[in-house]
Amino acid sequence: MPTPPAGAPAPYGQPSPYGSAGPAGHEAPGAGGPHPPHGPHGGDGDFDPPRPKRKRRGRGLLITLVVLIGLFVAADRLAVNWLENKAADEIKSREGLAIDPEVSIKGFPFLTQVLDKELEEIEINLDGLVTDAGQGRPVRVTELRAVLHQVKISGDLSGATAERASGRAHISYEDLSAAAGPGIKVSQAPKNAEGKSQVKITGNFMGLSMSANGTVSLVDGNTIRVRVNSIPPAIPGRLEQEVRSRTDFDRTVDGMPSGLRLEGVETTPEGLDISVGGSQVDLAN
User: Fold this and answer.
1) Which residue, 48, 118, 175, 191, has fewest beta-carbon neighbours within 10 Å?
2) 203-241 confidence digits (pLDDT tens)
3) What's the start-to-end Cα distance of the chain, in Å?
4) Any idea what the Cα angle at residue 159 is, between residues 155 and 165, rounded to 5°?
5) β-bridge mates for residue 81, sequence order
6) Cβ atoms 215, 192 nearer than 8 A
7) Residue 147's Cα: distance from chain center in Å?
8) How would you list the strands of the sheet with 118-125, edge to edge?
9) pLDDT surpasses 50 at 22
10) In angstroms, rounded to a whole number, what is the distance separating the alpha carbons of residues 266 and 172?
């Protein structure tokens, strides 16, 4: 059989003249030389263990953060509720009130305000405040709302003083009538020529009916004053002093935090609207 030319492949079924090596010393495919890597990561076909996914790690951190925030908020609310109750008890005890004041501390977070020893805002509600106004007739404040701003607190939380305060009080005509003399009814009347608020005062005196307008004003920051402008001609002059002893009255509103004052009064169809305010208002001592 003729010898095949150099470099030509051996006929089928006959061994290659190069043996197991290919041309130019290269090993033929399939020989016992190095094998190509197997699998996506090389090696002998074994796979590397799966690596942790970053998304799961991030999710775990997020859950931890949410839990920590929840614990902080819960602790913050518990602390603020404790101080609100403490302040309400202090006001009730110091002023000798029969009602429980409502104290609401605004702003979040509360704990950082405590560390700064200054609270942004505190709201006080004293609904149904009843005080002995003298002459055996108490005056009932239907509702009182006061907002205290920039409240400085002591290190042991035993005292608090507000830089300034504002709010409003309301006394219904029913409560104002009860604070007046017996048989006297107080209701709304138009303002006088000077624009001052007036009330209408009616009553019965020794069988004589009387109806007259009167002025309402504030005295000393804590007293409501009502005065009949003039006694109607139907009432004899000799009875004027006795009539005025029942129609003219001063009623002091006690029980407000020290430093809080009655500042202005307006008559409305429902009663007296009184603005309140003050500075260096003591919330608790």
Assistant:
1) 48
2) 887 778 889 999 999 999 999 999 999 888 888 888 888
3) 125
4) 120
5) none
6) yes
7) 11
8) 102-106, 118-125, 143-153, 160-172, 271-284, 261-267
9) no
10) 12
Contact between 185 and 177 (Cβ < 8 Å)? yes
Concatenating the DSSP letter of every residue in 167-218 gives: EEEEEEHHHHHHHSSTT-EEEEE---TT---EEEEEEEETTEEEEEEEEEEE
Closest CA to 124 of 84, 69, 179, 95: 84
Token output for 82: 């404790």
DSSP 44: B
B/e letters for 35-55, b = 16+ CB within 10 Å, e = fewer, are: eeeeeeeeeeeeeeeeeeeee
Residue that has been written with the tokens 């507000």 in this structure: 162
Q: Name the token pair of 20.
A: 């197991």
What residues contact 57, with CB distance under 8 A and at least 6 apart?
A: none
Q: CA angle, 175 as apex, 170 and 179 as ends, to 5°?
A: 120
Torsion angles phi and psi, residue 109, rounded to 5: -80, 155
Q: For residue 175, what are the contacts with CB-CB under 8 A and spacing of at least 6?
A: 139, 140, 141, 142, 271
pLDDT, tens digit, for every residue of 31-75?
Answer: 445 555 555 545 555 556 666 555 566 677 777 666 666 766 677
